[in-house]
Amino acid sequence: MRRKASLILLALAVFFTALSPLLRWYAFPRLAKVPADQYQDMVLEAKNATLLDYGTMQAKKVPKVTIVQTLKGNVGASERIERTAGRDVVVWDSLSYVQGPDGKMVSKLPERYIFDAHSQDPVHATGESVDGDAVTREGIEFKWPFRTEKRDYEYFDAQTRTSAPIHYKNTQTFRGVKVYYFEQTIPWTKVTFPKIMPVQGITPESVAKTGTTRWYTTVRRFWVEPVTGAPVYGEEIHKEELRGGTLLGDRDKVTAFSGHVKMREDYIEHTVDLVKSNRTLILLLTSYLPWGFLVLGVALLVLSLYLEARGRRPGDAARAPAADPEPVSA
């Protein structure tokens, strides 16, 4: 019985020991992926911002500018692309909607972002766009890869339609979560006007005829939880200007928007809780289960060898038979 039990334990030891690296290096890269039907929204605010009044073409201070960002997974589009791409693909239809303190639209910027569900690398397919214009993204946007590294990444900027490095700066703790802090600076760059302008009757084409151009710069900051690759917090120091042309009269430039954009507190709390939950699931595949199975395999191996050794130990020496009693003489 001991030998049979030791063989069973040995088989289990081999199984769990082999399962440990398989979970980490085979199962995890295939199971960890962004769901195709994901939906999320985010509200950001720029308090005490500067905003252009298009009625008077004068920049003025306002108490608050609100930016609502939504990301909606397009399952139908992702399935169509997967049939030709040969890999798991996620299609996000996103919208960044900016409104002034009176609730009226300042701008809105729709995007379609197509990427690999596992690696977050961009997938170039029909429909990849910003504000209706076809683009070819390089690098990441919105989300970092699983198991984010302490290095620079290429990050796509929707305003300029180009990618630039976003730099790893340091490791911090944010609301009890270990995060990597990244920062990107986009220098003053001439950008296109949005397709939908905040004033009825004004179009990008009509503005272009005046010779007025739009310029933009930003400092983009993200605090990223490295296991999931999800930002737990983000902010931008965002500036836009209109320059030159007859639209501005005798002025060289006017501020269209300037503000320090930050996530609203309730969305910070929700995001941190969500990232903590997803982090635990990722760690199950990359750390907790692989190490647990390895320790279990070693323990079972030791127990198997112990039972085998006991089964092979020689028994007590057989006792010598007692001598026959001597006959008693009469």
Task: Give the helix/strand layout.
Blueprint: H1 2-31, E1 39-53, E2 58-73, H2 75-85, E3 89-99, E4 105-116, E5 129-130, E6 133-134, E7 153-157, E8 162-174, E9 177-191, H3 204-210, E10 213-225, E11 230-243, E12 253-263, H4 265-312
Antiparallel strand pairs: 1-2, 1-12, 2-3, 3-4, 4-5, 5-6, 7-8, 8-9, 9-10, 10-11, 11-12
Helix pairs in contact: 1-4
* Number of strand segments: 12
Question: How would you state the average pLDDT, rounded?
Answer: 89
Please give the alpha-carbon distance between the first and last residues: 55 Å
* Rounded radius of gyration (Å): 32 Å
What does this structure look like?
This protein is of the alpha+beta class and 330 residues long. It has helices spanning 2-31, 75-85, 204-210, 265-312; strands spanning 39-53, 58-73, 89-99, 105-116, 129-130, 133-134, 153-157, 162-174, 177-191, 213-225, 230-243, 253-263. Strands 6-5-4-3-2-1-12-11-10-9-8-7 form a 12-stranded antiparallel β-sheet. Strand 3 (89-99) and strand 4 (105-116) form a beta hairpin. It is elongated. The two termini are 55 Å apart.
